[in-house]
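#struct-help
A.M.: can someone run this one for me? Single chain, 195 residues.
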Amino acid sequence: MGVVTHGRTDDPIYEVWCGMIRRCSSRKRKDWRLYGGKGVRVCRRWRRSFAAFLADLGERPSSKHSIDRRDGTKGYSPDNCRWATMKEQANNKVNNRRLTHNGVTRTLSRWADATGIHLGTLSQRVLAGWPVERVLSKEATNLGSGHGSAKLTERDVRAIRRSAKSSIELARVYPVTARSVRRIRSGERWGHLDA
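D.P.: on it. Structure tokens below:
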């Protein structure tokens, strides 16, 4: 009896399967230290059979999807793997900053999607040491105290411009990011107001 083949050796999903096995077993690969070198293994069923891998994981939804381990500390197996986009995988990294608000925990990227606030703004607010409620509050522009969404008064702006404190220190005192403090000091924001 001859060897049974799956006929998919030219298929990108077959390359995903081969790459997964190589990352975990070939010490010659540059990325082995991040997988096999850290103890990440491919389950026996998948290591032995591409057909079993395909049956368990299913077809790849699109070329934008690649294999993702739900728990990065565990290996490749049916209960720990899925097809995911780069954005989904980026949100699944162990070093992501997560915030919990009203019982909901999300990465900053997911909070940016949910609130409509730019990711960079959220990051600056977190770095400035703002409380979570303030970090996730709707972004407002500083167009002057007459603007309905103004976060600062003219008095605040003058105090910021006169202060010798760092931008980060001032961001902890006033309801703006360190970047906004720098913009206020340079005249890019509240430029109509003299110091």
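A.M.: thanks! The beta strands are 66-69, 81-84, 98-101, 104-107.
D.P.: also worth noting: The CA atoms of residues 43 and 77 lie 5 Å apart.
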